[in-house]
Amino acid sequence: MTTIKRIVLASRPLAEPTPENFRIEDVELQEAEEGDVTVRVLYLSLDPYMRGRMSEAKSYAAPVPVDGIMEGETICEVVRSRHNDFAPGDIVRGRTGWCTGAVISGDMMRKVETHGAPITTAVGVLGMPGFTAWSGLKFIGKPKKGETVAVAAASGPVGSMVGQLAKLVGARAVGIAGGPDKCAFVKDELGFDAVVDHRSRDFASDLHAAAPNGIDIYFENVGGHVWDAVFPLLNQFARVPVCGLVAQYNGHDTSDADRLPAMMSAILRRSLLVRGFIQSEFAADHFNDFLDEIGPRVAAGEIRYREDIVDGLESAPEAFIGMLNGKNFGKLIVKVDGVV
Amino acid sequence: MTTIKRIVLASRPLAEPTPENFRIEDVELQEAEEGDVTVRVLYLSLDPYMRGRMSEAKSYAAPVPVDGIMEGETICEVVRSRHNDFAPGDIVRGRTGWCTGAVISGDMMRKVETHGAPITTAVGVLGMPGFTAWSGLKFIGKPKKGETVAVAAASGPVGSMVGQLAKLVGARAVGIAGGPDKCAFVKDELGFDAVVDHRSRDFASDLHAAAPNGIDIYFENVGGHVWDAVFPLLNQFARVPVCGLVAQYNGHDTSDADRLPAMMSAILRRSLLVRGFIQSEFAADHFNDFLDEIGPRVAAGEIRYREDIVDGLESAPEAFIGMLNGKNFGKLIVKVDGVV
């Protein structure tokens, strides 16, 4: 028998998750059956949506049960295979959860294809976050040359892609990020036209100055006070793809006043389009198109990205808690180095 | 010189408009120039959007200036013409405002075409309200067979059309109306599948019972407590075309709690589409299609409608104030019988 480590949801967070909401434990790997692959985990992707799975609230996906393994996507190496499509040594990705190894149906795994870019990009710029940016812009935001596209968490895996894709169609990319280092990266490395620090006291006026012609597309992934600053700047016929609301996941985003009537009024008066989406809506039909279009550009260095890699499965809870407060800088990935 | 009567905005309302916000006055008609037509007004259309024009708030259209004529669309008879497209006796429609007669550029007027239906339908079921329903469903709501379409003010000109168009594609039409008379009309005369009285204490549970499979399209024209009841019932991928918010035009729709985070969360979790629109966005390209498709059905009695006609221009302010509180029953029209 082989023992692996995994992290389970020990209890549900009331607001911000704490280390006590997680528990690391040793478990025996189950016996592989026909069609299964046995994999060792190389990298675990940490993503904001996981906060939603820790709560019981109704959502697009079922919550993680208490004492159940935390959900998540990993990059793995196949060690043993009883599935025709996979052989030992294959690099694959799939939803094994927060663990060091797994026995899992090969039908649930996909081979990693990155067009020569590092394999970690398969959970970042060339994975779910990159595809979120690409599909949200392509099917909802639809930026046109000369329009202004704004996005928060602009140094992160979704935001960095949104701005760079906007530039490719000739739109003005305005990034919003927290702190001088991230802002410098967004402007200098990613090539956004402008960047605004949301921690500044002058954030709202800075944003207005950065978007002198208003905002035509706001790619919403944070909510909170960023939304409050963006909202007055939205132009007639602006589009707001909503893929995340990190600022309110921990229950912090409230106002003394009821902001709903003002929002509905703006939606009406300015003919706004607000559309929630999960990338999985588009993935079956379009993920391969995305990879063929963006993969070579990432491999060639034309599309830039940044990763924030922490070491060891046991580091995952603290890294995840920090991410919800913007402490990561780039796509947050846990290097696992599992053995099975 | 010819004297006409007109109604101007005497002052801006603070909340609900009052009769003192309006003033009726006599003015001399200007001299007609080449290209102008001189018209006598037969009917004035009263519509909720006019409340927005009385305020200074930024909107899709400029506010009516204080002492300026109240904006509005009328059905007129051409009395004299200096425009090649029009001759005396022609029945036309255009935005003359609240008045008994006008000299106006013929380029601003359109001949009334109703496929044999009464000419008043040109400002109702076959005019702007009907087209609002048709275009909002066709381009935003996109109802499919078997889906559930809900609409408030269901006995009114927009709502009555929304439900009947939904039925034509095989969707379930759920109407929301105020009071037993309107509810009976919506169910018995318009043929909706179900109707719910929003004045009932059990409104929210009644609505749930009327939409047992949830709501796929909510055609939003009122806001307020109707929205609060609809919102939890919206299905994954529901669409919300927003064409009006009557309940909040007078500033009444507020809540002690901030409803915005819950709405954004639902937009994300249920992949909702919320889209404000004004029918004019679609009218240039599609109004004739609408008229060709719907006109004959109205003329043949297949699509039903109800008008609420009040007499005399001087009745307009009181009728308008009542409409904002749901006192009208059907499309509100003022019979003017102007002389020029």
Automatic annotation (TrEMBL), chains A, B:
Q: What are the residue boundaries of the Enoyl reductase (ER) domain, all occurrences included?
A: 17-334
Q: Per its UniProt record, what Pfam families does this chain match?
A: ADH_N_2, ADH_zinc_N
Say yes or no: keyword Ribonucleoprotein present.
no
For molecular function, the Gene Ontology terms on record are: oxidoreductase activity, acting on the CH-CH group of donors, NAD or NADP as acceptor
Q: Which InterPro entries match?
A: ADH-like_C, ADH_N_2, ER, GroES-like_sf, MDR_fam, NAD(P)-bd_dom_sf
* Protein keywords: Oxidoreductase
Protein's name in the database: Enoyl reductase (ER) domain-containing protein
Taxon lineage:
Bacteria, Pseudomonadati, Pseudomonadota, Alphaproteobacteria, Hyphomicrobiales
